[in-house]
TrEMBL record:
This protein's GO CC annotations: plasma membrane
BP GO terms, sorted: cAMP biosynthetic process; intracellular signal transduction
Record protein name field: Adenylate/guanylate cyclase domain-containing protein
InterPro entries per UniProt: 2Fe-2S_ferredoxin-like_sf (IPR036010), 2Fe-2S_ferredoxin-type (IPR001041), A/G_cyclase (IPR001054), Adenylyl/Guanylyl_Cyclase_3/4 (IPR050697), Beta-grasp_dom_sf (IPR012675), Nucleotide_cyclase (IPR029787)
Keywords in alphabetical order: Cell membrane, Membrane
Organism: Pontibacter flavimaris
Location of the 2Fe-2S ferredoxin-type domain: 3-97
Subcellular location, principal: membrane
Compartments in which it is found: Cell membrane
Classification via SMART domains: CYCc
Domain Guanylate cyclase, first and last residues per copy: 123-256
Membrane-topology annotation of the record: Multi-pass membrane protein
């Protein structure tokens, strides 16, 4: 009596004893890629096991070797090396056409988990320079880019010091995540520490560089939230173009934007705040309205009120 295996979006097929999943799918007329002919060398037959992983035989020696090199997650198997020992298995072919073949074989093989996407709990960190536009309007392009590089270097150093990863930059702000290699409590703590360090560093930069050379100082706005998001590499040509998506990302961006209306440089969601081990901050409390959320959203204010500098007119350029 053969076992039944469901190929998601395709059909349910019988798998006879002694038949690999690849042999069974080909026999059932599924156009299953198998470039090396089922020798466990090419990986084009790979499947994602959605249900019943325990009903597959353990990886063979050649599958283990290739899995170690390509860093497959546990639920990715080679169909040509897998046998079935019971019912209730559901799988999905990962390479179904030439475009899939390109993505999986040429785009980001070094980290299959990121290629395939995963749901993770992360701390989401948005930062923006509050008063950059007046600086842009008053200075030469060279100065603007140079200062931008200095300030972004300061952001980058603090974020990487605390284990964060920058996901994207937009204009005079950026977006980073914490927790790709740690639990959510550590991630929240790290995001807050990185933010506080940046606020401290920008104060020094203002006093030692911006004020003396440009008669201008910068204020920042930081928003931090935690939540479950989808992490993956959309593979647009960069080697590790990580994308993070989900509603918590929008919330974190909203908190950053709210620094202005709340007149505080660092706004953190109550949910993130409650994860901090010893919050050494005299936090103020406020409530925000979030799109699509009926109840006011509680946030903590752990930065400082703004003191926007009255910059003197810039030196004239001749
Ligand atoms: S067909 Fe090549 S590894 Fe399975």
């Amino acid at each position: 009596m053969p076992f039944q295996v469901k190929f998601k979006g395709e059909k349910v097929i019988p798998v006879e004893a002694g038949q690999t999943v690849l042999q069974a799918s080909l026999a059932a007329g599924i156009p299953h890629y198998h470039a090396c002919g089922g020798k466990g060398q090419c990986t084009t037959c790979r499947i994602l096991v959605l249900e019943g992983q325990e009903q597959l035989t353990p990886p063979t020696t050649s599958e283990r070797a290739i899995r170690n090199v390509k860093k497959f997650p546990d639920n990715v198997r080679l169909a040509c090396q897998s046998y079935i020992t019971g019912d209730g298995v559901e799988v999905q072919r990962l390479i179904r056409d030439e475009a899939d073949r390109y993505i999986f074989l040429n785009g980001g093989e070094e980290n299959m988990t990121r290629v395939m996407g995963e749901r993770r709990k992360l701390a989401l960190f948005f930062i923006d320079i509050r008063n950059f536009t007046p600086f842009i309007e008053a200075h030469l392009p060279f100065d603007v880019i140079h200062i931008m590089r200095r300030v972004f270097a300061l952001f980058r150093n603090a974020i990487s010091q605390y284990g964060g990863e920058i996901i994207d930059t937009a204009g005079d702000g950026l977006y980073a995540v914490f927790g790709l290699k740690s639990g959510i409590r550590k991630a929240a703590e790290a995001a807050v520490l990185a933010g506080l360090k940046i606020l401290e560093d920008i104060k020094i930069f203002n006093n030692t560089y911006m004020r003396p050379y440009f008669n201008h100082t910068f204020e920042l706005g930081i928003g931090v939230h935690v939540g479950k998001v989808i992490v993956g590499n959309v593979g647009i040509g960069l080697s590790d173009n990580l994308t993070v998506m989900g509603y918590p990302v929008n919330v974190a961006a909203r908190l950053q934007a709210a620094t202005k209306e709340l007149n505080n440089s660092f706004v953190i969601s109550d949910r993130a705040f409650r994860l901090l081990k010893n919050p050494p901050y005299s936090a103020g409390c406020a409530h925000l309205t979030l799109k699509g959320v009926s109840n006011p959203y509680e946030v903590k204010l752990i930065g400082k009120p703004y003191a926007f500098s009255k910059a003197a007119p810039p030196p004239s350029v001749t």
